[in-house]
Specification:
The complex is a heterodimer of chains A (692) and B (123).
Chain A lengths: L1 H26 L6 H18 L1 H4 L9 H22 L2 H9 L9 H30 L6 H23 L12 H20 L10 H28 L1 H5 L1 H28 L4 H21 L4 H16 L3 E7 L6 E7 L3 H6 L3 H8 L5 E3 L8 H7 L5 E9 L2 E10 L7 H47 L10 E8 L7 E7 L4 E9 L3 H18 L6 H15 L6 E9 L4 E7 L4 E4 L7 E3 L12 H6 L2 E5 L5 E5 L1 H4 L10 H12 L4 H16 L8 E8 L1
Chain B lengths: L3 E7 L4 E9 L4 H13 L4 E5 L3 E4 L1 H16 L3 E5 L3 H10 L7 E2 L2 H6 L12
Parallel strand pairs in B: 2-3, 2-4, 3-5, 5-6
Antiparallel strand pairs in B: 1-2
Helix pairs in contact in B: 1-2
Classes of the chains: A alpha+beta (692), B alpha/beta (123).
Chain lengths: 692, 123
Amino acid sequence: MKRLRNISLILPLTLLLGGVLIDLNLLGGLFDNVPLRYLREGFITLALILSLPIIYNQRWASDRNILRGLRSLFFLILGTFLLLLISDLEPFAAESISTGHNALYGSMITYFILTAWALFSTLFVLVILGTIRNLIFIKQKKNTALHFLLLMLVLVFYAILSVIKIGDLTIRFSYRLSSESIGYLLLFIVINLMVLNSFRVSWLSFLNRKQKLTVFWGGLILVPIEWLLYVKYHTSNPAALFSPVLGRFVDLGFLFLSIYISMAFVALIARLPTATLFDRQLKQLASLHTLSRAISSEFDLTKLADTTVDLALQVTEADSSWLTLADGQGGAWHLVAARNLTESEQSAGVPPPVAAWAVAPLQPKLLNQISKSPVHVAMSIWKRDVQSVIAVPLRSGEEAVGCLYVGKKIEYGFEQDDLDMLRAFSDQVVIAIRNARLVEASLVKERLEEELRIAHTAQMKLLPKEMPQLPGVAIEAVCITANEVGGDYYDFFRIDAHRLGLVIGDVSGKGASAAFIMAELKGIMEALAPQHDSPKTLLLAANETLYGNVDRNIFVSLIYGIIDVRDRRFRFCRAGQCPILLAAHDTPEVQVLEPHGMGLGLDSGANFAGAVEEMTVPLRQGDTLLFYTDGAIEARNPRGEEFTEIRLVTLFQRHQQLPPPEIIGHLIAEIDTFVDTAKSHDDLTFLVLKAV
Amino acid sequence: MENFKVVRQDSVDLTTLKIIGFLDAHTAPALEEAIQKLIDDQKVNILVDFKDLSYISSAGLGVFMGFIEEVRSRNGDIKMCSMSPKIYRVFDLLGFPTIYQIFDKQDEAAAMFPRKEPASSDE
């Protein structure tokens, strides 16, 4: 790059030197002929074209330093004007013209002064054009670069064409063009392009009110001087006497300068009384207000993210915008909403280097030339067409919870105001996101609680409202549900005058799904109980129905038995449920009745039939049976110890003489004392059957 | 809330899942995820080590039921070992020993899985 820049300096100089060498020849009158003059003009034209990059390498005015650029412009023009006044070129010009030839034919001193002026004014015009270009390119729009390039090309082309016109003086082309009409047409285009480019005065909005006033006073002096300079230079035009191409180019350069300065000045005057800065801030405030209102009323996180990128895109007039949020752990960044990102860009997500750069010191960043930034590589792989970007971290306390980006396809697409506005906007977004998340969390909680409430109600409705009355037996049952509904269930089915079906069970899982299965189970049992005399055949049928209708990971453990008060016996099967404790009237020890069994819904049939065993126990007066679910023996105390079957057996033995409701009362009270402050996590059901 | 953890150990013939802590309706999804991952990885010879499990609820038991058919249809199996008496009792009450092979010691259980031929492990 450096070498290239050196060449771009050396080449024009060499070519100019060539031109001057030819001049010296001509002055000596050695080889005065037409081809040599063409050659000379060719050298100079080439030198001019090769010098054009000077315009594009100007660094005098940038968005950060507009005032410095304006100041250089001011002093350059003023200095040149004074120099032109002092050097009084008219005699020289008159001399050249009177001899009917260009500068070459004047005296030696005329030649040198005119040459010096030609070169100086060319350089002056190039530098000025460069400075104006910088001003034009501030906050550029899509066609800005194109319009300026077009102006430069037409300028040079028109300048080259002028050789034809000046042919009268020195050089005659062999073919005749209708030079006048083409010349006027071109001039018309040039001036139009000049005016078009002169509308680009966005840099004015970068100036605060005080700076605008300064520029106003400067402009008051500069504008007339610049026009005087143009007119004065135009009449003598030393560059034209040196070379027609250069002369036309410089002349038009002066004209463009005059037009641009005048139009900028007019634009400045137009903006002054409205106190632009204030006006802009007001506008900014208004849009910020709109933003806040729009997002603070949005509690849906997805919609909120969408609204955010939409509004960010609008207020900054960006080409694309996107929003990332940190996941809970603060590890990865998720792209949650985007505008004008392709699908592949969205699925790829913001590249980690860019995301890291964006949130690094938690400060908003404005990058107007991605090509010259450290994220250049990552960015060009991910989204090539973005040239300027603003990244605003969404900060909550000392950490970033997300990042809002806007991008433009051109360099220098954003200004400081855009950044400030997004910064203020981002604070609102953070609050809105936090609110949305809180609302979401509380909604989820509410929904869960509602579901549990419904499940609880359903479970309670499924349980019998009162105990069955059957001569010869006393029955009592209590189900205590945990905070989260378990699946405990008990029920009674009248089979005939002396027989009663009894079921106690536990559906696996919790919550609404358990309550749902329980309802299904109740239906199955109610349908089957009257049809089966044998608990085992009933359970085989129940298992078959259940196995076909519930998910594989759901099963039911239960005991189904038939109380027969005529024959005074109890026949039952244990399908995976906790065993029955029997306190017989004539035995001091409590017996554990645990026939073989298997849970319902675990097996399709064959294994189940083999595993389930029927058992019959006599019901003699004073015999007491205790049925319980696992919630009773798995109840935990604050130290994490379980209540256990052993404790239950001991306790039952102590209270078995009492009527059923009192037995249950004692058991529950003991367990309550045991659990103490610990939270119960399962349902707990007791059922006591006493033969009287 | 008590903790639950699944530790996976892959060997040539089988994969051991050590389940640690408190397995109930809240922690069951973690075990479900672990077993689903094994099936996705084509590891269907699964040995579940209960040595450090302190509690299992019906929802926890349901997890094994949810996968056993699929695992067996892929010629694999879920075997269990090292249950504390209390946990074994829960399984026993429900009749699980007729559905699953449950072993006292881990090496006994591991020996029950088919050995892979060295040649076939090259694939």
